[in-house]
Amino acid sequence: MQVFNTFFKIAKKQLPVTLMYIGIFVGLCIMMGNTARTDKDYYNFKACDLVVIDRDNSEMSAMLMKYLAGIHEVDTESDYRDEQIQDYLYYQKIDYVLYIEQDYAKTGTLTNVKRPDSKVGEYIDNQILVYESNMRALTHAGYSLEEAYALTLMASSADGLVTLMDKEDTWPPIYNALSFAPYVLIMVMFYVLAPVLAAFNHKEISKRLNVSPITSRSKNVQIVFGQIIMSIFIWIVFLAFIYLYYGIENVDGKLPFILLNSMAMIIIAASMAGIAGNLRLKGDILNIIANIIGLAMCFLGGVFVQVKFMGSTMLQVARFMPTYWYIRANEKIFSGDNTNEILLCIGVELLFALVFFMVSTVVSKQMRAASKS
Amino acid sequence: MFFHNFKYSIKATLHNKPHMLWSVAFIIALGTLFYVSFGEIYSQELVNAIKVAVIIDDTETAEVFHDMVANISIDEEGGEKLLDISDVSHMDEAKIMLEDGDIDGIFYSQDRELKLMVHENGINQSILASIVAKYHQVMTVIADLSEKAPDKIPAVLSELLLGESHNVEKKTTTGDMDVYIAYFYNLIALACLMAVNSGLVITMKNQANLSIVGARKWVAGAGSFLQTLAELLAGIVVQCLCTLVGFLYLVLLGVDFGNQIGYIALIIIVGCVTGVSLGFFVGNIGKGSAALKENIGVAVILTSGFLSGLMVGDMRMMVEETCPVINKINPSALIADSFYALNIYDSHDRYYKNMITLFIISVMLIIAGTLFGRRKRYASI
Amino acid sequence: MAETVVKIENLVKRYKETLALDHFNMEIKEGEVFGLLGPNGSGKTTTMNCILSLLTYDKGTVEVFGKKMTPDNLEAKKNIGVVMQNVAVYDELTVYENIDYFCGLYIRDKELRKKYVGEALDFVELNEFKKFYPKKLSGGLLRRLNIACGIAHKPKLIFFDEPTVAVDPQSRNKILEGILELNKNGATIIYTSHYMEEVEQICTRIAIMDKGKNIALGTKDELKKMIKNTETISIESINVSEEDKKNLGALEHVYEVNSDGEKLIIKCNGGKHNLIRVLNYINEKNIPCGRVYSELPTLNDVFLEITGKELRDKEA
User: Fold this and answer.
1) Which of A13, A115, A152, A295 should we substitute to test contact with B (largest number of B Cβ atoms within 10 Å)?
2) Which of A18, A144, A248, B104 has the fewest C-beta atoms lying within 10 Å of its C-beta?
3) Which helix (H) or strand (E) holds C162?
4) Would the CB atoms of B141 and A137 count as touching at under 8 Å?
5) Domain ranges of chain A
6) Rounded CA separation B354/B330 (Å)
7) Which strand ranges, in their side-by-side order, compose the sheet holding A96-100?
8) Pairing of strands C59-64, C33-37
9) What CATH architecture does domain A49-156 belong to?
């Protein structure tokens, strides 16, 4: 088991770097998890983020603000600079800015700033128009302001009129963190496992091993065994961090599937890192390739941007990413879907892992053959 | 000595073909990926016709509904209508279309009331809900007026259905508000900061305890500030070339960075300067091995990119809310924000502020690196 | 009187618990080819690195060209050349470019540098390889490139740190000849090695090191005179009785008689015609034998006698 022991001697020297990467990426994972919209979703049924600046300070302007606050998240006390408002609109932190101008009570003048041609903007414009036309029409018809307002409020409500076919589940924050796990696991394995494997595949070391009395098969088995142990270690550390932060109260009977799903993902990550190691990638080349593969797989697979926002062509491409199947499995686990469907997704992930492993083996053989010639 | 060092550093770096190829490939691969991934998303957020099914059995309700939606258009000329009504007459069929995502909602009637069925929460669904709400509003008001002032109904109805808006839009920018372009800004930022590898290599080849060439140069008395500057400049030049090539590819692909070429070039140059300086600094501090310093460099730029919103677009705003000072010193955020400022603002104040900040950061990193790495003896080499 | 180029006094250097240099003293005069001989781990490279101010040291002083040697002593560094044990060249530059680059760290004048680089290429006979990259060169050629990079700027003081490791005999001879030529042209050479044959061949003065100490210093003749043994007579394929051994040991100037299987080793101290006396005895006793030869003591003998161990570990 000399090769196996040496594998861990090399890995042990990398322990500080390993823990550093796990710490950093898990930290990013937790931060990513906390950014995901849950109950304050941009595409929430009603609530958008509005800023309303009242320059009129009249009874009428107060009524308008109250009306809007009943539907949306309204920020009235902000002291935003123009530049801030622009930034917030661009980065979609706010959706709409309404200025109730000084002569609003007399002329009804309003000014708005929104993202051009956006649906949200049009939607809120429409709501304000409904309110305005209602109030104008009723006050012209002889209603008092208060009567007109009360009727407008009652009339504008859509409660009870809209049915949601399938109730959307609200998932615990750990769901979001686990959604980002593929990125964490792929990057950690590339930065940590690939260099260890590259050390074994160093040209001269490889030659030395080839002329030793250890058979190729024995050497490969020991290295694979080493990879497995290392992967398990990283997997456990990663999960420990996540569970320590989020706890396991909200996962109920989902824990076995969560473990299976994340285990499948780390096997995939280890296999890909194996290919990189067998190709003797290191230094800045490894860094660049790790970023390309990690980011590509995660963007295409729906880790960073949800699959539902992708076009149909992209969706077809996404199916060829193991990360896509991980995300699907994760969704099915947390929405309590059929066990068979979950296992199907995990099965597909394991197939990907098998393919990567086979590619890794072929690459290893080719590199060995090349070093002999 | 300066030009001697510069010349040979350029030669050595240019000859490192794998590094150069992969530096360019990085932008090309991820740029293509982003372009293909995000190409359709923003257009989906723009106003376009919403597909619906209308299955209203009650004639009166149907008439009022159709009158109401007839005037709702996407464009100001009234050409394209907001609702794209599908040719479906049975509820079951409509429900299947709704589940499959072929339509966003089903308008139907129940007890002579207009109702809406949707499959998910979304902006399209919210717009449809506002139509139902408007219908309900009209009917409620008419009902109330019938009791109190029936003669006013025509005037009120006219106002409700055809009333003009006094809500004027103010355009604060002529720039492109597509938030997904920020991913490309961050990609260029990361590509610039990848120059950290160049800075590290330059440093290690000047340190006796990290490379044998470093030992030889050290003994020669090399490593003066000017000599180091020459090598750093060479690293910057090569990284700029690689990033510019990748950037041009993105432009050819169709990503709109605007047309302020000179300003854009300056962002890339200053970004690469920052990347190289960062590598120089990391390489000179502490007594760690070359591998450890490489890993630290990688960790720093990935964290920088993440906090700037490379992976999750919302991260920048989250950082702005919780700890805004990070956005003011994070190199990735500053580079991406410079592109943003060029896009959105006519004035270059913010752009120059970012450039100056980046430049100051670079100078500080180089000075700190020089101070830490100045001629010294080693305990062991 | 030749000037002192390098002077080390009472140098102490520790690597954590290990004492690498133990109150080491040394003085090297201008024009010498000074050898630092010692087994692996004796402190030769550490001494060299301390002289070059690459390493910190705990105690003592180092002077080069009469001035204290510090990392900032650029005046001294301009006149120093180093040929390191490991090849220190840029893989990304050609042979010519490497020499030109490193020479350029010392010589600013472009024309002068061009001349020096050409001479360095001639010196190491790498002209036909000047456009090659290091990866394409054999081990011996790489070593020559390494040398060229260290001496192109015509330094007054040159350090050679085991320059012939893993080099074929032909290249090795060329390197040694080259070093002598450099010395002839005025350079002071400090040569570290654990190959005594090389040191004996080229060094004018030798310091033998062991465990960080300077255990012997002098010319090779002076060093050999330090030990008892002045002549070793070896007789192969011989079988002698204990009595014969005793009798041989009693011969004049003989102080030690050992047998190593069928080989008899007789050590003598002083005197002339020791071989004749031994041969006469063997003839008288009609003792059959094979080859007989006499050797003068080597530096290995010097080292063995002083330390009780071989200069180099017995090679299998």
Assistant:
1) A295
2) A144
3) none
4) yes
5) 2-38+171-372, 49-156
6) 10
7) A73-75, A49-54, A96-100, A110-114, B167-169
8) unpaired
9) 3-Layer(aba) Sandwich (3.40)
Q: Where on the phi/psi map is residue B76: left (φ > 0), alpha (ψ -120 to 50), or beta?
A: alpha
- Residues in chain A within 8 Å Cβ distance of B291: 17, 195
Host H or E run for residue A81:
none
Contact A119 B124 (CB under 8 A): yes
Give the residue among B284, B203, B285, B202 at the shortest CA–CA distance from B238.
Answer: B202
Domains of chain C, earliest start first: 4-225 (3.40.50.300), 231-296 (3.30.70.100)
pLDDT in tens, C71-115: 888 888 889 999 988 899 998 899 999 999 999 988 889 999 999
Q: Give residue A18's identity as a one-letter amino acid code.
A: T
Instruction: Please report, for residues A221, A271, A300, the alpha-carbon distance to residue A275 in angstroms, rounded to integers and kept in the order given.
Output: 16, 7, 21
Which one-letter DSSP state was computed for residue B151?
G
pLDDT band at B291 (very low <50, low <70, confident <90, very high): confident
Inter-chain residue contact B216 with C92, CB threshold 8 Å: no
pLDDT > 90: what percent of chain A?
Answer: 25
Point out the residue among B36, B132, B317 whose CB comes nearest to the CB of A314: B36
Contact C99, C145 (CB under 8 A): yes
pLDDT score at C38: 86
pLDDT band at A42 (very low <50, low <70, confident <90, very high): very low
Contact (CB<8Å) C89/B213 = yes
Query: Hey, what domains does chain B have and what are their CATH numbers?
Result: 2-39+180-373 (no CATH), 48-162 (3.40.190)
Residues in chain C whose beta carbon is closer than 8 A to a beta carbon of chain B? 15, 49, 52-56, 71-72, 74, 77-78, 80, 82, 84, 86-90, 92-93, 97, 100-102, 104-106, 108, 149-150
CB contact under 8 A, B8 and C97: yes
Most confident of A15-19, A117-121, C185-189: C185-189
Q: Sign of the C-alpha dihedral, residues C126, C130, C134, C135?
A: negative
Q: pLDDT tens, C125-183?
A: 999 999 999 999 988 899 999 999 999 999 999 999 988 887 888 888 888 999 999 99
Closest CA to A3 of A169, A296, A222, A232: A222
Task: Report the 10 Å Cβ neighbour count for B271.
Answer: 32
Which residue matches tokens 């080719």? A366
Round to whole Å and give the CA distance between B120 and A167. Answer: 8
Cα→Cα distances C152→B60, C148, C155, Å:
102, 6, 8
Q: Which structure tokens are listed for C33?
A: 């080819």
Contact (CB, 8 A) for B175 and B345: yes
Q: Which has more pLDDT, B77 or A328?
A: A328
Q: Closest Cα to residue A133, out of A114, A155, A115?
A: A155
Contact C72/B375, CB-based, under 8 Å?
yes
**Cα Rg of chain B (Å, integer):** 30
